[in-house]
Amino acid sequence: MSGSQRPGGRTARVRAAVLEATQDELVERGFHGLAMDQVAARAGVGKTTVYRRWGGPAGLVADLMDSLATESAPHADTGTIEGDLLENARNVLGAITDARLGATFQAVIAAATCDEEASRALHGFYTRRIEEWARVVDLAVERGELPAGTDGGEVIRAVSAPLYYRLVVTREEVTGDVAARVAGQVLAAARAGAFVRART
Amino acid sequence: MSGSQRPGGRTARVRAAVLEATQDELVERGFHGLAMDQVAARAGVGKTTVYRRWGGPAGLVADLMDSLATESAPHADTGTIEGDLLENARNVLGAITDARLGATFQAVIAAATCDEEASRALHGFYTRRIEEWARVVDLAVERGELPAGTDGGEVIRAVSAPLYYRLVVTREEVTGDVAARVAGQVLAAARAGAFVRART
């Protein structure tokens, strides 16, 4: 097996360097300032390699989001749905208030308003994250904490949404208090059966 | 009283033309493509006037958001909190799925991720909108439909957030079904007392 084929080999190292440089550039310049040559220089990788492998700025962003999805925290398992939803809210809060990660999400959210490839990358990231965390609701249903048929994806969206809404739409501060309140509000609705899937 | 001082006079007509041109340009080119000269030409107004009165692209966007806030629908008063929250969800849905208005919001949301003045304009718009619609919760408390101390602003944010979250973050389709479900989920939480302000 050659070095370039091993996980952690040359190909993986090039990807890691290019994605780190992509994230640096996104944080500093935003999506509109993302330039392939600059990313290549910053990563210490030949331009030809970067163009051949990622095609363009949107390709870099798509691969970065894919990598962030893989690194994203697996769902909590605190033993109660109350604890797990609070963990989801804290996880979102931690991501959006982290200087580097928060700026990355905001840059990709901005890019997605006018770029189809960035939009798909964003959609893919959140689809994976929502599916991963929706399992805490399935576990709660199995434990008898929530009504059968509760839609886990909808519950997780409802916890995450008010935090992102304050971040990018109303431009309000997102604090630990807000995160805890939102988790409690969604839990109350879930217990009342408001997230049970409609029978069709 | 001179013509230029009357509401509907020359000053008001110039503002209306410039803000319409600003919105056209935002929809077609996004915030990064918004150019003062182009807005002036499109509005049929002298460049000097546009520069003197609005300063720059962010000033145009701020005034546009101010004007949209003024035109924004007053809160519903259907007689029940169920009906009013559903109306809020439908109102948000109508705005974000309207080709022109939806593209305007998305352009300003994108701009706000990297421009402080655009961020303040967005914040001002949603603060006014949330305050206006929060009154439906106060009315419901007065009618005895919701517990005393229910935070109207938080209820309205909770209804609007999952719709904007799908629009700009997860990039999922926002339908009338989603809007109705979200209104029902928030109503269940509000009835359970989950939006009652913490005593401090």
Main sheet summary of chain A: none
Tell me the CATH topology of the largest domain in chain A. Answer: Tetracycline Repressor, domain 2
Structural class of chain A: mainly alpha
Broad CATH class of the largest domain in chain A: Mainly Alpha
Number of helices of chain A: 9
Range of strand content of chain A: under 5%
Task: Please state the CA-atom Rg of chain A, rounded to the nearest Å.
Answer: 19 Å
Tell me the overall shape of chain A.
elongated
User: Gap between N and C termini of chain A, in Å?
Assistant: 53 Å
Tally of distinct domains of chain A: 2
Main interface: chain pair and counts: A-B, 45 and 44 residues
On the 0 to 100 scale, the average pLDDT of chain A is 94
Protein name (chains A, B): AcrR family transcriptional regulator
Keywords (chains A, B): DNA-binding, Transcription, Transcription regulation
GO molecular function, one term (chains A, B): DNA-binding transcription factor activity
In short, what is this structure?
Chain A has 200 residues and is mostly helical. Chain A is 72% helix and 0% strand.
Structural notes for this entry:
Two copies of one chain form a homodimer. By secondary structure, chain A is mainly α. Chain A folds into two domains: 2-64, Arc Repressor Mutant, subunit A (Orthogonal Bundle), CATH 1.10.10.60; 72-191, Tetracycline Repressor, domain 2. Chain A has nine helices and no strands. In chain A, helix 1 crosses helix 2 (36-43) and helix 6 crosses helix 7. The first copy, chain A, starts with 9 loop residues before the first helix and ends in a 9-residue tail after the last helix. Chains A, B: GO terms for molecular function: DNA-binding transcription factor activity; transcription cis-regulatory region binding. Chains A, B: This is AcrR family transcriptional regulator. Chains A, B: Pfam families: TetR_C_11, TetR_N. Chains A, B: Residues 35-54 bind DNA.
